[in-house]
Amino acid sequence: MSKTPINQGGRHGRFRVGRRELLLAGLAMAATVTFPHINSKTAAAQATVSDRRKLGSLDVSALGLGCMSMVGIYNLPQPKQEMIALIRAAVERGVTFFDTAEVYGPFTSEEIVGEALAPFKGKVVIASKFGFGYQDGRVSGRNSRPENIRRAVEGSLKRLKVDTIDLYYLHRVDPAVPIEDVAGTVKELIQAGKIKHFGLSEAAPKTIRRAHAVQPVTALQSEYSLIERVVENEILSTCEELGIGFVPWGPVARGFLTDRFDENSRFDSSDRRSSVPLFTPEGLKANKPLLELVREWARRKGASPAQFSLAWLLAQKPWIVPIPGTTNPQHLAENLGAVAVELTPNDLMEIRAAVTKIEVQGTRLPESALSDH
Question: Catalytic residue at 169?
Answer without folding.
Answer: no
